[in-house]
Amino acid sequence: MGWESACLPQKGTFNLGVYVCYQIEPLLDQRSTVWARASNGSGGHQLQEHGVAVPKPRETVVGIDLGTTNSAVAVIEAGQPVVVRTQTGARTLPSIVAYLPDGVTLVGNPAKRQAVKNPGNTFYSVKRFIGQDYKAAAEEAQRVAFTVASDKDGAAVVKCDHAEAGSLYPEEVSAHVVAQLLEAAERYTDSAVKKAVISVPAYFDDDQRKATLMAGKLAGLETVKLIREPVAAALAYGLNTAEDQTVLVFDLGGGTFDVSILEVGSGVIEVLATGGDAHLGGDDWDDALIKWLAHNHLTPAGVDWRAPPVLTQLKAIAEAAKIQLSESERVAFNMPFGSEGLRAVLTRQELEKMTAPLFRRARLPLDQACWQAGVDLGTVLEDFAARKGKSRKQGGSRGRGALGGGVQIRPKRRDPIQQVLLVGGATRMPAVRAFVKNMTGLEPKEAVVNPDEAVALGAAVQAGILEGSISDMMVLDVWQATLMRALATQKLIEQRQEEGAEVTSEMVSAGWASDSEETDAHDSNGDKMQEVESLDELQKLLEVPAVLGAPKTSRVRLN
Q1: Which residues lie in coiled coils (predicted)?
Q2: Catalytic site residue 453?
């Protein structure tokens, strides 16, 4: 599928799933002013208020990992994906953006270095808020040093003293990260970059996907294609697609968790099932450390650890300690708080004990994905089938796993998992590797790529497939929200139709028909769709008055 066919809805069809590659028109909602900037055709990778980059003669398509903690960009060179270094020479860019009083915007390490002095206007982990309602993000908002609020329509925004409107949508913040990556790619390739494949967690719903698309548009991209992070990781690992195998991708990043079951063979990578938690990642291990330090050392010493400057420093201290404990058995803290400073010692075993609940949260999405894919993972199928209706999904309504609401399809039994791929910086923790091994009985595949770079590299491979420079591989994704169209009691679409598949159904309506139907429907894998709250409402949306009893042919394309 090339860029044209991927981007443009075909006449006489309607698409299920957000258009992952298209020109977005300004929406008549609270974001219309912000989003209109993305459709003004200005281009360039400096955001509008910072000027427009000069167009360059040659065009390059890039792959972008827009991560919670770090981001990266990669391109295809001589048929192979290559990570592009940032302006500072680093292979990844911290997903941190700071706004200064003089109108200057800092991105990456410069923003990180000044965070303690400017905590209220330095934004990190905004991926956890992108496309979210404030109510869904309220608990998460308590864990950051900046202020998360609600706009007039209930969407999550971040307060910013130096923004003209006084607040910013998360996609506006993320756009600066994308713009910085695009500048690095243009400098590296000496060509214009107007098209990109951007990664998203497998469980992102319609609102989150559209907001991610908008971040790319605001950064100056004309065309954006989304790819699920686990699929990108599989592409990056360079799996032998000629060999039939079932693969588990365990992706634990800074702020999100994805698990996917893939079937590989005959040059095709097919996604069988996905699960995830929108609010589980390396940040949660940092938070556990912060709370341990606060409870045992800061609070007894009279230090207000929730004060933004203190919390910002604690975040950096906890992250460094977590990384050190991945390589050492103990870590010593020397904290610049109180009159004489505070000292503490923590062992790896103590960290693993205090974070045990996080592994229980990771277990459910893994069970869900295995159950839906029909993969025999020890007693997973039987165990999950017995308790799937009793367990509460983690991450709220936005963090749904593979088993959403609606009809459950009995899984087809498949071969056991033969390979395990680890993706995301948090998988470097020994406890994470041990957890995966205990669950699967397999040693994770030895990393042939840096876990921090795998998603960006895979996104670049997908860009190469779309642009035609890579032709011996195909990715078939699977939509996992159950969506039925009941017209004269006939089910038109069931869960697990492959992306790109077309379903044709002819029926005689009791009172609905037309010569042709062109409808735009969006799937969310969450608790709502673009314009409907239930399947009944979707059915009403699709019904068009026509001649009573006239035969009706509907074609549906999953995109």
Answers
A1: none
A2: no
Q: Quick check: 189 pLDDT over 80?
A: yes
Tell me the two tokens of residue 144: 């950051």
Least confident of 35-49, 281-295, 465-479: 35-49
Indicate if 159 belongs to the active site: no
* From 127, 195, 217, 315, active-site residue: 127
The helix or strand, by DSSP H or E, that contains position 163, with its residue range, turns out to be none
Same fold? 18-121+172-228, 298-352: no
97 is written with which tokens? 């953006």
Task: Return the top range by mean pLDDT from 68-82, 174-188, 240-254, 468-482.
Answer: 174-188
Does the pLDDT value for residue 407 go beyond 60? Answer: no
CA distances from 208 to 213, 263, 526, 529 (A): 9, 26, 10, 12
Q: What is the CA radius of gyration of the chain?
A: 24
Share of the chain above pLDDT 90, in %: 44
Q: Is 229 a catalytic residue?
A: yes
Q: Does the pLDDT value for residue 521 go beyond 70?
A: no
Catalytic residue, candidates 251, 283, 284, 523: 251
CATH number of 18-121+172-228: 3.30.420.40
Q: Tell me which of 518 and 238 has the higher pLDDT.
A: 238
CA angle 223/457/327 to nearest 5° reads 140
Q: Please give the model's pTM, rounded to 2 decimal places.
A: 0.71
User: Of all residues in the chain, what percent carry a pLDDT higher than 70?
Assistant: 66
Query: What's at 469, amino acid-wise?
Result: S
User: What token pair was written down for 127?
Assistant: 């991926």
**Domain spans in the chain, listed from the N-terminal domain onward:** 18-121+172-228, 298-352, 498-558
Q: What are the phi and psi torsion angles at 152 (to 5°)?
A: -65, -20
CB-CB neighbours of 338 under 10 Å? 12
What is the C-alpha to C-alpha distance for residues 4 and 194, in angstroms, rounded to an integer?
14
Our answer to whether residue 127 is catalytic in this structure is: yes
Out of 229, 258, 283, 286, the active site residue is 229
Residue 58 is predicted with a pLDDT of 58
CA torsion, points 352, 357, 362, 363, in degrees to nearest 10?
110
Yes or no: say if 284 and 271 are a contact pair by the CB < 8 Å rule: no
- Both tokens of 481, joined, read 């929200």
Stretch 175-191: mean pLDDT: 96
Instruction: For residues 125 and 138, give the distance between their C-alpha atoms in angstroms, rounded to a whole number.
Output: 14
